[in-house]
Amino acid sequence: MTTWETRIRIGGLILAFTAFFVSLGCNTLLYGEDSGFTVGLACLLLGMSYPAWYANLFLFLASVSLRQKQFWGAVGCAAVATGLALSALLIQEVPKNEAGMLAPVIGYGIGYYLWVACGLVLLAAGVACTLVRQKSNSIPVLGEVG
After folding, report:
1. pTM, to two decimals
2. DSSP 58-119
3. Using CA atoms, how far apart are residues 115 and 38, in angstroms rounded to an integer?
4. Of 116, 108, 88, 110, which is closest to residue 31 (Cα–Cα)?
């Protein structure tokens, strides 16, 4: 394994984890009627009724794959995670209180964009590590007979 591969892998994991954990404390979905918002932690804990929530599982799998140097697995899981996260753009209404009243989504906060960025960072790190590994495997070692 090359030092560049290690740097990209560790840097990507640190950046992705940072983006994910910061997103938990930020606004994610903005909805009308009294300018309400949903915090990322609430989306993580209560958002299972939306397909976009399952991006979290694929973000976890992409992180584990990248950590275990399974770069194609990381690329695949991160691509699925990013697609699922982007599907949150299709959510038109969200529950605004315990009574189940719905409010229309009027925008997305910084937490949503950090969450999507987490998937994109893992995807980019997986692709970059794959390219670095392929390039290092194609360079002949001094004295090697080919």
Report:
1. 0.86
2. HHHHHHHHHHTT-HHHHHHHHHHHHHHHHGGGG--EEE-STT--EEEEEEE-HHHHHHHHHH
3. 14
4. 108
